[in-house]
Amino acid sequence: MVEEGAYWLAWAQISGIGPVLLRRLQQHFGTLATAWNATKVELGEVEGFGFQTLEKVVQQRSRLHPEQLFTKHQQENSHFWTPADADYPRLLLETPSPPPILYYRGEVELQENLGQKPMVGIVGTRQPSEYGIRWTRQISTALAKNGFTVVSGMAEGIDTESHIAAMKAGGRTIAVLGTGVDVIYPHKNRDLYKQILTAGLVVSEYPTKTPPDRTHFPRRNRIIAGLSRAILVMEAPIKSGALITATYANEFGRDVYALPGRVDDYPSQGCLKLLSQGASFILKELDELLTMLGAIPQIDAVEASIAPEQLMPISPELQTVMNALASEALPFDFIVQQTGMAAGSVSGALLQLELMGLISQLPGMRYQKS
Known about the structure:
By secondary structure, the chain is α/β, with parallel strands linked by helices. The chain is 45% helix and 12% strand.
């Protein structure tokens, strides 16, 4: 059976099908595998699928073979997640446009992916003042020492300062790139890039060897916002890309904080605009900021009325095993019997569901829904 992840990859190869339409497809059909085999009429029922898009799907789908495509892609890009994978970052998955493929390099920490370790985005101008640099270093250091992971874009200026300060404080950091994860941009950050690989991750929605392109960087800002529980804008002119990140953060329901500056300082104009629109002030008392950031609910503090499996799409195989489970513990052999699947497949599915936090294992190889 072809894995659901192969269909996320295959659909992403069809021109005109972006993250938003992919999410609509997945929600409409339940799985992208089902959508792949849907008729033209059935696809036309999905919002956003006009005549031209349908024609492209029909023409291009017949030339693509998901399983072969997935195997070849794995050979060229050894590390990537699709929304069908248990390790796909859950906070990012909650956004309207999660990347269908998220490439990564470095050291994965599962608690970050599950939303159980807080991540905070820090963004700002490429040409910060000494004031902006000083506060970026102080805040990044404080966040790292208090267990937060710092997320930024590895650009010059504020991004670079936030990554370096977090690592110097012994914390983790994640760089979201507008290139392939194997392409260093700007090149002067090659040493920083190597350090991040040992103290965090670099991630990107672009495959290996993708060079920098001016259209990539505004798009990658939605990933910074999507991964983070809150966005801190340290210094930003009115036309700064940091304000794009703040806009995405507002759309995604994230908190936005801005560092106030003097009204006649060019690098502070964007921050002052954000503050006038309701962003929270970053003030001298960092303990207050840390308290506010720590008070943001974790992803596992969801109302009990919402089933955990509703927070992320899971493959049909995992869903079959999930359906066989109950709130009381069931023995492994009984689950195998209920699903009709091979014991090895059931064992692998149970492990994946446990890593996703959807089920719990009890002594004696008994399992129950969390």
